[in-house]
Structures are given as structure tokens and as C-alpha cells.
Amino acid sequence: MAIKDKTSSPRREWLVPVLLVLLSAVPVIAGGFRLAELGGGGPVTPGNARFFDSPVPVVLHIAASALYCVLGAFQFAPGLRRRRPGWHRLAGRFLVPFGLVSALTGLWMTVSYTLPAMDGELLMVQRLGFGSAMALFLVLGFAAVRRRDIAGHRAWMVRAYAIGQGAGTQVFTHLPWVLFLGAPGEVVRAALMGAGWVVNIAVAEWVIRGHGARPSRRAERVG
């Protein structure tokens, strides 16, 4: 059995990071187009005027979210953590501030920007709730590692990353509806957005509780 694990690990250890990077692709590309739009000065439309009026939070949010999601994906490569524990810790020192900037600028935009026509108060409440939870989980994860509680640290960081990847999953919760039924209304859009976060949180809890939730003592010392 040990021989089988050693043989299969190199083939499988990069699967999750690659899938997470792919999940980030659409939001990262869309964010890049938004930055190019802002940098190029337009065109200004009713749908993007709020970003031109106050570009700082959206620029910070796009940059921090892209770095957090892409760099964070490689924290899920177990072989990399074992072989390069120093890299794992160094990346974590960047990921916590990137994640906090992503969460806090998301909250900033939610409370300061005028709601677009397609959004509503239900979606605003969801954004406030999940954004606040992401920031809290990052703080709890950082506090846990300072106490050398590695299992707790990993659990909180997985939860925070799941929320941070919400935009990627929301592409897939929206796609079938848009393809077959057209643009969703305010309530349906809020439900589809919420579904993306809920799916990610459910997967995170499955990973934490049922798939490698308890690291070995050796892993705890290395992590």
C-alpha cells in the first residue's frame, strides 16, 4: 500500500491546485478586463460608472483577489508543503494580507457603491455576511498558527479560501440559468450567487472533516 501511495502521489498532488487555478480563471480574466477598462478611461456606462467614480476599492479588490486565489491554490499541494515547508509559510505571509484586502474591499464596495439594477438588498446582505466571515476566518487562522494549532489553522484557512473562490463557482451556478432561461431577476440572482458560496463552504467542510482533516504529528511539526 505504501508503494502505491508513493507512485500515485506525484500524479495526483497537482490536480487540486490546477483545478483551483482553472476555477479562478474567469473571475481573474474578467477582473483584468475591468482594470484595462479603468486604465483606458472608458467607455463609461451606467453599469460601470460607480467604478470610475471611486476606482480604489475595485482595483484593490481585483488585484488582491486574483493573487489570493491563484497563489492560494498551491497551498493545497501536499507534496509541495512537505518538500518546501518554508515556501508554504512564506506564501501564507502574503496570502493573509491578500485575503484580508480582498474581503475588506468587497465590504467597502458593498456599502459605498450604489446598487446596480440587477442586484438587491438580499445580495447585499449575503456579500456583507460572507465577506465578514472570510475576514474573520483569516484572522482566526492566523491566530491558530501563532498558537501552533496547525489543524485549526488549516481548517480556518480552507474556509476562508472557499469563500474567496466564490466568484469562480458562481460562474457555474449562473451558467445553466443564463443559457436556458436568460438573465436572472434580482431574487434569482441573489440565490445563484449564494449557491456559489454555499457549495464552496460545503466542499470545504467535507475536506476539513472527512478528507485529511487530522494531520499527522509529523505534518503538524512541519506545517
Structural notes for this entry:
- The protein has 223 residues and is mainly α.
- The chain is built from eleven helices and no strands.
- It has helices at residues 2-12, 15-40, 49-53, 55-73, 78-83, 85-112, 121-146, 150-164, 166-181, 186-210, 217-222.
- Helix 4 (55-73) packs antiparallel against helix 6 and helix 6 runs antiparallel to helix 7.
- Residues 1-8 and 212-223 have low confidence and may be disordered.
The residue fraction in helices comes out at: over 70%
Strand content: under 5%
Mean pLDDT: 89
Number of strands: 0
Low-confidence stretches: 1-8, 212-223
Number of helices: 11
Strand-and-helix sequence, N→C?
HHHHHHHHHHH
Largest sheet: none
Which tags fit this structure?
single chain; 223 residues; mainly alpha; 11 helices; globular; disordered N terminus
Write the layout of secondary structure elements.
Blueprint: H1 2-12, H2 15-40, H3 49-53, H4 55-73, H5 78-83, H6 85-112, H7 121-146, H8 150-164, H9 166-181, H10 186-210, H11 217-222
Helix pairs in contact: 2-4, 2-9, 4-6, 6-7, 7-8, 7-10, 8-10, 9-10
In summary, what is this structure?
The chain has helices spanning 2-12, 15-40, 49-53, 55-73, 78-83, 85-112, 121-146, 150-164, 166-181, 186-210, 217-222. With 223 residues, it is mostly helical.
